[in-house]
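Entry: Peroxisomal bifunctional enzyme
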Amino acid sequence: MAATRTLSHTVAVIKINNPPVNALSTPVCQALIKELAEVKKDPSVEAIVLCGANGKFSAGADIREFSSAARRTVSLEDINAEIESTTKPVVAAIEGVALGGGLELALSCHYRVAHIKTVMGLPEVLIGILPAAGGTQRLPRLIGIPAALDIIVRGRHVPATEAFQLGIVDEVVPSSAIAAAVQMARKVIGKPMDSRRLSTNAVQYNINVDAFLDTALEKAKRQFRGAQAPLACIEAVRASAQLPYQRGIEKERQLFASLWATGQPQAQQYAFFSERNVGKWTLPSGERWDNVRPCQIRTAAVIGLGTMGRGIVTSLSKSNIPVIALEQDTKQLDSGKKAVNSLLEREAEKLKKQGNSFAEGNGLGSVHFTLNFEDLKNVDLVIEAVYENMNLKKDIFRKLSSIMKPDAFLCTNTSGLNIDEIASVTNRPQLVIGTHFFSPANIMRLLEVVRGRHTSPTTIATAMSLGKMLGKVAVLVGNCPLFVGNRMLGPYLEQANYLLEEGYYPEEVDQALEEFGFAMGPFRMMDLAGLDVGWRSRMEKGLAGSGVPPGTPARQREGNRYCPLADMLCELGRFGQKSGKGWYQYEKPGGRHAHPDPWVRDFLAKYRKTYNIKQQAVHPEQILQRCLYALINEGFRVLEDGIASGPEDIDVIYNNGYGWPKHRGGPMYYASAVGLHEVLMVLEGYHKANPDVPSMKPSFLLKKLAAVGGPPIKEWRTQLGKLPNKL
Ligand SMILES: CCCCCC/C=C/CC(=O)SCCNC(=O)CCNC(=O)[C@H](O)C(C)(C)COP(=O)(O)OP(=O)(O)OC[C@H]1O[C@@H](n2cnc3c(N)ncnc32)[C@H](O)[C@@H]1OP(=O)(O)O
């Protein structure tokens, strides 16, 4: 039953019932219309309470209906208008969540009572649309332009206590919101209702609305780089101040339709569901997320308090998991402790600002700092986060193997080392797993969970569940050098480097990719990560430094094209932000503002002259094609090798760990949107002209999918079914 009704004296309680989140699907809306019509004409009913079953008001419109064949036939705003115009008072009893259409429904009620642990908001912008059931018109009428704009444009979740302070809800209660709403309904029977009908009120403001919104628009254009939904939200809020309510609603609808035509909502909604689907991991053996139980992690330890370790400790503590943090000497322990404490103070500050919804039983977990390995022996799970050196990691795992209780899980935070080799030195390879965090680990949402050959399904389930507890989006991947994200980055950065050889400057390549929507172009990203990281790895592989065989041409390795520019910068001590100079110059070592460096321009000019490289006419569009298609081609190889279970997994990794613009869905979604045939043609053309760049040779899977007509991305798995699976 999509909605049910009970009677409490003269108050009808209508309950939305559509598990798991009471989405306002077409059947729910139809049921609401029917129940409303009945209570309106029922003389025994004097007031109405609207609530949701199972402690959740509603997570809004059913997003799956937006792109399904069965498009909505019932308008949510029509239901809202119907509720608002009712002559019997309607009170919303808000519990759990009231998001999107859920909050819009509550705003059409005459009164709102919320449980203290509720979160509410209008997060439509995060799925590429705008609140299109009157939210952009009613919320500014209730709380004013600046506060409404902040909630609508950022799509943030507002805790009940803040909602009360802002005036979104009339009462916050620590116990049943339904009981409190019934009480309130009884009290307001017979009271005047006009001022409670938000659509009839004017927006109150004492600011220059146009100037305020113009500034917000400019800021949003810079901040959201090409995403259209935030801009549409601002325009809709502008309409609330400038137009009568009904014309504001028309504007809202018109903006919704224009957004839909951009294709961005479809990409963002694909990203939304992909994030949920990656949690539903499946192994070829049939074990999966819903038939393997994770073990409970009551205590954890982190080894190494460098940048990664500090973030991981903070992240665990933030999730209320007591942590033991270990370093090798007093100096490093002290500096790690200081850094962790300062990160935790900031987190505590944030929790305080978020108010009561986080306060109860959800503080920070304790952190114990130690130099003594023995202190770790009873924890349930340990995460090793020392720097990327196989021998060092193996030494630590040998030690852990002998110290830790037999059922403790051993995780390694590596960005690409072989999990099997690390597991091979332990007495429990089935409990060893890779947990690749992204920096800063207390903030970045992505966690690559890397399955080794012997990793057990229970270990996978536990690591995936830990990821969820930490508020991360965990993606299960197979074990191969660099795993998924970093592996795909290789060919992308290679093309970016070649573009410099061919006449571009770092800032031009970065600009093209930032205009595409990346949070950071490749050169700014390399400067941030530290150029020495890649340099050390190339030296280990004999591609740079003294290990290069004598007589090897500077721009060739093993017969293939090679770009030594990054190595040359490192030889000059230009490691990026940390040294104050890299592809850019910074105000000081550790400075964060990248400025184009005339020295780099000069250096590149001399380099091109030395190697007699003719500047080619590379059209700016080709910057995008070369970098992005190189990355995408490697993504197809990842799928071919069975390292990721589907294109969604790759897209979730890129959206959450590499600054890919969500409004473009992810690299594999982008490829399907551009057309696989088009991607293949460009790669083929490039590879024909540059046979010494093997990464641009079109992958087998891309060719196969293009040959069957480039099916929609949701059908790729059918083709993947016949490929090996290393999960
Ligand atoms: C021209 C006019 C057109 C009119 C259109 C009217 C406009 C209405 C605007 C809207 O209301 S759009 C929807 C706005 N709401 C949201 O964006 C909320 C999205 N959901 C969430 O943020 C979270 O799911 C949650 C509610 C905070 C719960 O988080 P939790 O971590 O507890 O669970 P999840 O794993 O995320 O979700 C559980 C389950 O529910 C599915 N789901 C969640 N929300 C929706 C939804 N709004 N519609 C459909 N399905 C939803 C989610 O996909 C999970 O299911 P799955 O099977 O595991 O994937």
